[in-house]
Write a structure and sequence with these properties.
- The chain has 136 residues and is mostly helical.
- The chain contains six helices and no strands.
- The radius of gyration is 21 Å and the shape is elongated.
- It binds heme C (HEC).
- The site of heme C has 25 residues, from helix 1, helix 2, helix 3 and helix 4.
Length: 136
């Protein structure tokens, strides 16, 4: 009776420990992803969208680039639309109903730079993780 109970407790403990470690490492990964996304954003997106308190420097756009801290609020959603945003970034989803798209089609840009599919997916993941982290 007693050893069985002990065994049960040991199993329960290791399960709890496993879940805990898993959550922590997942969060760590997401944070690292967002930090890499932030660097890419500063290089490739900030000129049009602005970043932190810095305004956009490219101001000759026909339509002002949207404030990306308001993605959730603008949609009146409670959760970040991950798939939709990934598709907007890579160009599978065109946001504007009229006229040419002003934002570069990043899927094609990365492709033309010789990035393979896996790296492109990784980069989109990083950008999305960064955008999730800046929602107000
Ligand atoms: C040349 C200017 C420009 C650059 C550079 C740019 N964007 Fe955009 N972005 C826009 C404009 C303008 C829109 C509004 C839709 C359109 O006209 O295509 C937009 C829309 C978006 C949207 C949709 C927002 C929403 O709420 O629907 C996302 C997400 C986005 N951009 C992310 C990015 C990311 C990530 C990068 C960098 C990899 C980037 N943009 C670089 C101009 C730009």
């Amino acid at each position: 009776m007693f050893p069985k109970l002990l065994l049960g407790a040991a199993i329960l403990c290791s399960i709890l420990l496993f879940i805990d470690c898993n959550t922590v490492s997942q969060e760590g990964t997401r944070h690292a992803q967002a930090m890499r996304g932030k660097e890419i954003f500063a290089e490739q997106c900030m000129s049009c969208h602005g970043m932190d308190d810095l305004p956009a420097t490219k101001t000759d756009l026909e339509e002002k680039a949207p404030d990306l801290t308001q993605i959730i609020k603008r949609r009146k959603k409670s959760e970040f639309p991950v798939a939709e945003i990934a598709r907007i970034i890579d160009g599978r989803l065109i946001v504007k109903g009229h006229g040419p798209r002003e934002m570069p089609v990043w899927g094609e840009v990365y492709d033309s730079l010789g990035m393979d599919k896996e790296s492109i997916r990784g980069r989109k993941g990083e950008l999305v993780a960064y955008l999730m982290s800046i929602q107000e």
